[in-house]
Amino acid sequence: MLHILNKPPHSEAATQMLSTLAKGDSILLIEDAVQALLHADWQGWNAATDVNVCVLKEDAASRGLSAAALNGHATLVDMEGFVELTAQHTKILSWY
Description:
Order of helices and strands: EHEHEHEHE
CATH superfamily: DsrEFH-like
Shape: globular
CATH architecture: 3-Layer(aba) Sandwich
CATH topology: Hypothetical Protein Ychn, Chain: A
Number of helices: 4
Number of domains: 1
C-alpha cells in the first residue's frame, strides 16, 4: 500500500498512518509532511526498515529542505516518481 501524508510528522494524521503500516508499504511525504526531514526522532524513520519512505522533491525544495533530504532516511522523488509510485501500488491511502 502507498500512504501519502501531507500533514506534519507529529500530527494526528501521521500518528494514525504509522499505526497502519505493514511490511512492504511505501510512504510518500508531501507538502507539510516533508518537515519530517527535520525530526530525526520521527517514528516513520524507525519503520523505514520495513517500508519505503519517499519525499516529494519539489515540496522539500520549496521548504528549503533539499539538503536535509540527503539524511539517508528517505528517497527523493520528483512528480514523475510520484506517478510511478502510484502505478506500483494497487492500494493508495491519503492522510490529510
